[in-house]
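Any chance you could type out some protein's one-letter sequence along with its backbone structure tokens so I can compare the two?
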Amino acid sequence: MVTGTQALFAGFMVLLIAERLLELVLSRRNAARAFERGGVETGQGHYRFMVVFHTLFLVACVAEVFGLHRPFWGTWSVVALVGALVAQGLRYWAIGTLGDRWNSRIIVVPGLAPVTGGPYRFLRHPNYVAVVLELLCVPLIHGAWVTAVVFTVGNAALLFVRIRAEEAALGALYSEAFAHRPRFIPEVRRD
């Protein structure tokens, strides 16, 4: 029998999956625009793995909650939900700041200056911070701790490869613009 909190979690997951599908449409559109402007793609090898990894994450969240009958943890689950919603806010702040330059692949249009506004004022990779937070928090909304651990660790390995490829593709202009910005955790300046 499905509990009320399981039904709410399933509804949340349906919305999250719909959001990901819309992001894929936006990503494809923006990638096509980047290619029209002479964009060059790198990182295709790990991109396929990344797509499979994130798809399996969504499946694992649902499978663990319903297959292993994970409980709703009350306050901890609410904290995880807030974390997941913060992750979505940060993701869309980054996407909105990048505009039509955002896509899920590594496509660099030669000659464009790096985007340094929005959350990029504080971090080099705000979207990846959102992904880390999401992979940790979404499963914990309904006690799927195995999924949270496995995919958080797997994502760390994936980001190690992804960030190196992305920063190499972006080149010297990026390195110069972001030389004094932290990758993941904003600095608290004491001026």
Summary: The mean pLDDT is 93. The longest helix spans residues 4-36. DSSP finds five helices and two strands in the chain. Strands lie at 40-42, 106-108.
